[in-house]
Specification:
eight-stranded antiparallel β-sheet; 3 helices; 8 strands; 39% strand
Amino acid sequence: MKKGIKTLIFLFSLLFLYTIVSAEVKVPSEIKFNKEVYKQAYQAGNGTTSNKVTEYLKSGETLDRFEKMFSIWEYPDAKNVKTFTGYLIKDSNPQYKITPREILENNEAGETMASLIITAGNISEYNMYRILIRDGHVVTYQFSYRIYENHGTPAYKKWLEKLNSNEAEWFAAMAGMKDIK
């Protein structure tokens, strides 16, 4: 009889574990953004009890050095898009300079899109976010465009020109993305 109870407890534990794992939000192995393909390169957290990030890179790029990245973030403790957006653009870390560029609210859809440039040392990164509520908490789709040059250099100026000429296209691509589940 004791062996039967142990087996039953073991099977119940497996079923419980399967339920927890299957409840986690699934993400695709690749993302297509603005006609470019990004493949999953990194994932951490679970999106239910901790923040979850899944990062995607174009072929040939690495997490240590990339030009473009697409990320999906889940914040289980964040429940309000406007409040989250305020924290996102707040310059609270003295190591980084945050320069907000654009904030577009879609009250009908309950979403916000925001863009900003984060600078730390010789790295500048343009970030565009689509912030929405999914499964009762904040989820962001994030596009990053990065350069490893100091301000004022010819390469930085060219990067900034490319950013300015492509930003509207990137916003349209982000707004046109279907919900990723």
